[in-house]
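Weekly structure sync, notes
Attendees: PL, DS, HV (note-taker this week)

Item 1: DUF6985 domain-containing protein
DS walked through the input record. Source organism listed as Photobacterium aphoticum. Sequence as pasted into the shared doc:
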Amino acid sequence: MNIDLSKYKPDEYGTYLIPFHSVLLEAEVELIIPSDNGHVENWQLQIVEKFLQKEEQLIEVLYQALFKYYQEGLPDLRAQFGSSADEIAPIIDHIDQLKSLITPTGICIGELDPSEEAVGLLFECSWEPEHGLGIILKNWIVEEIGDQDLAFTL
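Item 1 (cont.): predicted structure, written out as tokens:
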């Protein structure tokens, strides 16, 4: 897929918000490409192209990391939610169960450092409806998982 930005206009902040079907996220999401006054750098578009090439390879790595993150935080989450824990942060045994607790919303391409191939992934999640879930992929490895704000720090 070659991104033709001429079909889109940046928002008031210079950011392109492009409807995008992600194989990795198994959903229609927004591809978010920040720009300087509407000018997207070639290296940003190259990262989009590489992301498209690597999406299928990243599926297992991404969801394994998410599953581990959820399992490690689960005791604290369940204690926090008390009687609502089974609904908000249920005990799960498999990655497919985790997918029902998260909703992919976006893919954010970095704007700061062309030497790193960095992509942020955005999700809504049952256990953190206010702050969501963010994942940073750097050089195609899951580097960090946290709140959605994390995915915009690229």
